[in-house]
Amino acid sequence: MASERRTCAKGCGRKFSRPLGSRRVYCEKCSPPRKPKAVAVAPSRSTDSSAPGPIETLALAQLQEAGRTETIEGLTLLRLAREMDGERATASQLGALAEKMLRIASVALAGARKAAPDRLDEITARRAAKAAAAS
């Protein structure tokens, strides 16, 4: 590695080798101390970690409605939902968790019993029957 000989800019008269591309102007004795780099502080977690978050609550409600809370897929879905509600995951980790959650939710809820039909289901059925009769 090539270097050049420089004289200290503080006026002490010492000579030092400076690597090419370096901006160093002081010798080792005269150079100011380095400032420590700022350390990133992780966000504090909530004190009540046993309380379910909004994603876990919604996932649990859907699994209970379908009667699938005691299946391996249902328990896996709840565990992933708990991780998503936590504050430890980064944005890319949340994206991966969300993708896995949706995949597992489709498996966990597949073939589950349907809820009682509501007003919207009745309207949709009448509209489909009317369209079938017209054609």
Brief write-up:
The protein is mainly alpha-helical and 135 residues long. The protein has four helices and two strands; from the N terminus they run E-E-H-H-H-H.
For the secondary structure, the number of strands is 2
Main sheet: strand order: 1-2
Mean pLDDT: 84
* Broad structural category: mainly alpha
Q: How is the biggest beta sheet arranged?
A: 2 strands, antiparallel
Low-confidence parts, pLDDT < 50 over ≥5 residues? none
Strand content: 5-15%
Query: What is the overall shape?
Result: elongated
By DSSP (H or I, 4+ residues per run), the number of helices equals: 4
SSE map:
Layout: E1 3-7, E2 15-19, H1 54-66, H2 72-85, H3 91-109, H4 119-134
Antiparallel strand pairs: 1-2
Helix pairs in contact: 1-2, 2-3
How would you portray this structure in words?
- With 135 residues, this protein is mainly α.
- The chain has a domain at 54-109.
- Helix content is 46%, strand content 7%.
- The protein has a two-stranded antiparallel sheet.
- Strand 1 (3-7) and strand 2 form a beta hairpin.
- Helix 1 packs antiparallel against helix 2 and helix 2 (72-85) runs antiparallel to helix 3.
What tags apply to this protein structure?
135 residues; mainly alpha; 4 helices; 2 strands; 7% strand; elongated
